[in-house]
Design a protein that fits this description.
The protein is of the alpha+beta class and 200 residues long. The chain has 2 domains: 12-76; 80-199, Roll (PH-domain like). Helix content is 52%, strand content 20%. The protein contains 6 helices and 8 strands. A 3-stranded antiparallel sheet has the order 1-2-3. It has a 3-stranded antiparallel sheet with strand order 4-5-6. A hairpin with a 3-residue loop joins strand 1 (79-82) and strand 2 (86-91). The protein starts with 11 loop residues before the first helix and ends with a helix.
Length: 200
């Protein structure tokens, strides 16, 4: 891993999503589409049954044909970057989403692997911060994730090394914690903001 060098998920990430598509489409067809087609042909006249069947099959086939076109584009839209002070995650085919996580606000790093991703040796590295978890109601919510990587141990150790080399910044209820370097006026302003929140 290098500072300033962009990277993306392992190429097997696309295979993982194709596997998801196969499992999901097969499940939907067997549990929803096929029973609906059988019911239509049993209880409707033949001409009407054909029309209804077409209206059921067309959206299903359209979705199944579209997703294989979308998966490579989504894969190429994902970018990960470690800078000197933060992690940047970018993704999205039509709507771009960018997450920025400063190292000194990271409180926890999780490595997650599902049963299907295990087959491809892929894992997800999740980064949690105190402020983001507090905003989500106190639960352990990942502010950013690096998905579909095989060198997860290297990524986790690399980030931990950067995190341990910086002074942590705790965040609660949207305000930075009071630190010794702040002036008396700044401390007083923050105390007033906290009091206003408590009085609401």
């Amino acid at each position: 891993m290098k500072i300033g060098e962009k990277f993306r998920p392992h190429v097997d990430f696309k295979k993982l999503y194709y596997s998801y598509l196969l499992i999901l489409s097969t499940t939907v067809f067997l549990l929803a589409v096929l029973p609906a087609l059988i019911a239509v042909f049993l209880y409707r006249p033949s001409i009407e049954a054909v029309a209804i069947s077409a209206s059921i099959l067309f959206p299903f086939m359209l979705a199944v044909d579209f997703v294989p076109f979308w998966i490579p584009k989504y894969y190429h839209s994902i970018r990960y970057l470690f800078t000197e002070g933060e992690i940047i995650v970018e993704k999205g085919v039509w709507w771009r989403h960018k997450s920025t996580v400063p190292y000194n606000r990271i409180t926890n790093i999780d490595v997650v692997q599902g049963p299907i991703s295990r087959r491809f040796g892929l894992r997800k590295v999740r980064f949690q911060t105190a402020g983001y978890s507090a905003a989500g109601g106190g639960g352990a919510i990942a502010e950013a994730s690096i998905m579909g990587v095989k060198n997860f141990d290297e990524i986790r150790d690399f980030v931990l090394k950067l995190v341990r080399g910086l002074r942590p910044v705790a965040v609660e209820a949207g305000f930075e914690a009071i630190t010794p370097g702040k002036t008396a006026k700044e401390m007083l302003d923050e105390l007033r903001k906290i009091r206003e929140i408590l009085e609401k």
